[in-house]
Amino acid sequence: MNRFAPTKAAGTRTVDEVTGSRRLRRMRKAAWSRRLVQENHLTVDDLIWPIFLVDGENVREPIAAMPGVFRFSVDVAVREVERAAKLGIPAIATFPNVDLSLRDVTGSLILDPDNLTNRATRAIKEAVPEIGVITDAALDPFTSHGHDGVLRNGIIVNDETVEQVAAGAVLQAAAGADIIAPSDMMDGRIGVIRSALDDNGFQDVAIMSYATKFDSAFYGPYRDAIGTAGLLKGDKKTYYINAANSAEALRETEQDILEGTDMVMVKPGMPYLDIIRLLKDTFALPTFAYQVSGEYSMIMAAAANGWIDGERAMMESLLAFKRAGADGILTYFAPSVAEKLKG
Ligand code: PBG
């Protein structure tokens, strides 16, 4: 029994008069018709799994700010990547957390053919040759100050950084990396890395540029994961893109393409869906989104508090990247998503 009887709406037009016979809910009425008209799909082929590495054996270290994510020693990483391959995940991306004693002002550890990244690549490619290995070509895991470049008199020097990262990229390729992912936003890095790879016989090694990497608060948990959080002084505003700028993101991407990148990436992901769409529509290159640590941790934290349905939020956030035009997504959720898609 209604306490208030419906009265005629204040307006003069009925719904029929407003929509005619058009009813958008018609195709939403049943599961079968919703499936039939679904425009975008997330599949296991869309997933790239970023993993963290640490020295030692049989290590599986939880990362406080990223519940469900661990740092793996190389032997454990190999087993985890085997699992990922079985789930059908096409590629992984590695990020090392090296001992503080090995870090220096210039990040020279990137020049060690046997550094943690390269040892992991060799072991993974030997055990699981069918999975793609993407290595991070940047100095920040190796510098004592957590910046992505050589630091001189308070300035991140561009050209010296690029030379060093390019030399490191060649070592990564020699260890078996399939894709080099330069993530430092130095000018000219793509072209210099491309020529270094080609000159050393690695014409088949691809480049996925972090074409648009924004200066972002969402990297917080990652810096905990690779141990740069306590080291970093100042910010990365002199090399990452201002979050307010999309025309600049377009020019950055154009430059990376001119220099020879095979793929482009947008990072972070969800706050930058407009940039993904812009790049895909403008350049039609393979375009990837990086759902970064902060995005992952926000979903996990809200889910842990019972504020959102974590699994639904995970799937929805990833589908949004497909809708925005992404060909694939780097996501810490990759194994969970692959399992869910399988089940
Ligand atoms: C830096 C780098 C960052 C991430 C990966 N490599 C950003 C940063 O620390 O400034 C972030 C990844 C994430 O947040 O998941 N080369």
TrEMBL record:
Pathway: Porphyrin-containing compound metabolism; protoporphyrin-IX biosynthesis; coproporphyrinogen-III from 5-aminolevulinate: step 1/4. Gene3D superfamilies: Aldolase class I. PROSITE patterns: D_ALA_DEHYDRATASE (PS00169). Pfam families: ALAD. The active site is at K213, K267. InterPro entries: ALAD, ALAD_AS, Aldolase_TIM. It comes from the Bacteria. Keywords: Heme biosynthesis, Lyase, Magnesium, Metal-binding, Porphyrin biosynthesis. Its EC number is 4.2.1.24. Belongs to the ALAD family. Homooctamer. GO terms for molecular function: porphobilinogen synthase activity; zinc ion binding. Mg(2+) binds at E252. It is an enzyme of class 4 (lyase). GO terms for cellular component: cytosol. GO terms for biological process: protoporphyrinogen IX biosynthetic process. It catalyses: 2 5-aminolevulinate = porphobilinogen + 2 H2O + H(+). This is Delta-aminolevulinic acid dehydratase.
